[in-house]
Amino acid sequence: EVHLVESGGGLVQPGGSLRLSCAASGFTFSSYAMSWVRQAPGKGLEWVSGISGSGGSTYYADSVKGRFTISRDNSKNTLYLQMNSLRAEDTAVYYCARIAAADIFDVFDIWGQGTMVTVSS
Amino acid sequence: DIVMTQSPDSLAVSLGERATINCKSSQSVLYSSNNENYLGWYQQKPGQPPKLLIYWASTRESGVPDRFSGSGSGTVFTLTISSLQAEDVAVYYCQQYYSTPITFGQGTRLEIK
């Protein structure tokens, strides 16, 4: 069965850093692009970042560009999101999602349960 | 950026009746080289992650009940639930994956009347 399990969320002070992880199982990880999507409390879905199956192409929302870095380790079937210079407006549930192709221009067909990130002093 | 606008923001429909949710994109998401609309629909129930319902604007994801259907092309799209069931209460989102940044509509909350 296909599974995505996020970890690494928590409470962090403004200006701090966190690294989120997403462990994938049940499919050939390197054959699929992956993405991070966040949802602030009571709000809608916001795409954050995406990465191709090979890891050779990465994409970011303007709101996180220069602060967040997406990466993947295909040998460990794991996706990462390094988040630096965190702001209060980054507070959200962060979902890891599988994209239904090797590049990011396809639907998000599998989603993890999410991990909560709270940025507050 | 492609802006996705859904209407209405909320909708109350009686059990067994039809529910229709609209989505407009600020520019076409139809890719001419393959004639596909890069448009998906998702359902999100409280406390759960989103679930893919429809891709390429009108293709139902495996396991999704056939009362869900998608239509439209270019910039105007519709999600239809032909006969509303109690378990369909959720927020529904459209999404374009034609270009980055990938963008979602603001969501439509569907309730039982």
Question: What does this protein look like?
Answer:
The complex is a heterodimer of chains A (121) and B (113). Chain A is mainly beta. Chain A has strands at residues 3-7, 10-12, 18-25, 34-39, 45-51, 58-60, 68-73, 78-83, 92-99, 108-111, 115-119. In chain A, strands 2, 4, 5, 6, 9, 10 and 11 form a seven-stranded mixed β-sheet that branches. A four-stranded antiparallel β-sheet of chain A has the order 1-3-8-7, with no helix packed on it. Chain A is globular, with a radius of gyration of 13 Å. Chain B contains no helices and 13 strands. In chain B, strands 2, 6, 7, 8, 11, 12 and 13 form a seven-stranded mixed β-sheet that branches. Chain B has strands at residues 4-7, 10-13, 19-25, 30-31, 36-37, 39-44, 51-55, 59-60, 68-73, 76-81, 90-96, 103-104, 108-112. In chain B, 0% of the residues lie in helices and 51% in strands. Chain B has 113 residues and is mainly β. Chain A binds chain B through residues 35, 37, 44-47, 50, 59, 61-62, 95, 100, 104-109, 111-114, and chain B through 38, 40, 42, 44, 49-52, 55, 61, 91, 93, 95, 97-107.
